[in-house]
Amino acid sequence: MGWYSSARLKIRALLASVAALSAASCAHRPTPPPALFPTRSLWTAAVEDGADLPPATDGTRLFVATRTGGVLAFRLLDGSLAWGANRGARSIGAAPNLLVATTADGTVLGLDPENGNVRWKVTGPGSPQPPVIDGSMVVVAGEGLVAIDATTGRRLWEAAERTQVTVPPTLGASVVLTAEAGGALRCRDRGTGQSRWTFASGADLLAPPIVDSHPRVLVGTAARAFVALDPREGKTAWRWRLGADVREPPVVFQDSVLFASHEAVLYALNRANGHLNWRAALPGRPLSGPLVYGTAVLVTCFENLVAGFDARSGRPLGVLRTKAAIRTAPILVGDQLFIVQRDRSIAAHALNLTPAAPAPVVEKAPKGRPPQSAPRP
Fold it and tell me: Among 289, 332, 299, 328, which Cα is nearest to 50's?
């Protein structure tokens, strides 16, 4: 009897251990990414004069610079027009409690995002790129570079070099990065604007770099390469050769840097060493850089496609086909995607929050028996 009771206890303990291991296995199974598609159409708003540059947002409103110099503010909630003003705007940038517009002659305007009123005005560089706002600093590049206090409009510093900057600058915690005509990437001190180093990429840079926390400066080039640089000296840490240019900015996700090349491929490289984590074919050439949404990534492609992928594996998650051709790179606010279209409209879509179904797990079956999908825990 004692032997029987002892055996039962051992069997129970073994079964409990197996159950615990099974539960732990289920608990550590990767969470499926959101399904993304089909999206839900929220609203469509007209932009009668059309727009050529991506919109901007302060988290409450969506701002559009029109081809005729107007600035329009749409409410994110329902797409209604909050206000419109003719500011001679060539490009815009936004952050909470601030809207910045640049004009063709280089004037930089600080606007109230609630009504479009001018708060401050300062002379910036000629042929300006879209302004970049980071905390209390606004940086505008073009035929030169100017840093401005976001609250008062006071000029903080101006770069000594008058070279042409080809894409909007990138602001890091202590640096400002600018892509200059001829393919040079210049690193400056954020506090003073003084040059620290330059890197020759081999061709005009078409996409802004990003500053990684490894630390690395991650650069997609027009010389058919993606490069990681040491931010202290600008020396190459690693390089990945490509079959085409990178024309849109990259983004960091977990241990990967994600970017789309003009050969219609989405890459995920290890940020530390440049090794390939995965790559996926795009349905067309990219019109935007990757946008991360949870564990998914979105890439807009010519002419009217937004493709979704699992950011961890590259597994396709579906495609959104817009009713009209897409004009500029969209922006993502929460689960809402805002797209400027060639028919002079803005379309707002809500992404699907439902988790994607996990891929079936196929077990090896005994001889003479067909394989079956493993049951979900």
Answer: 328
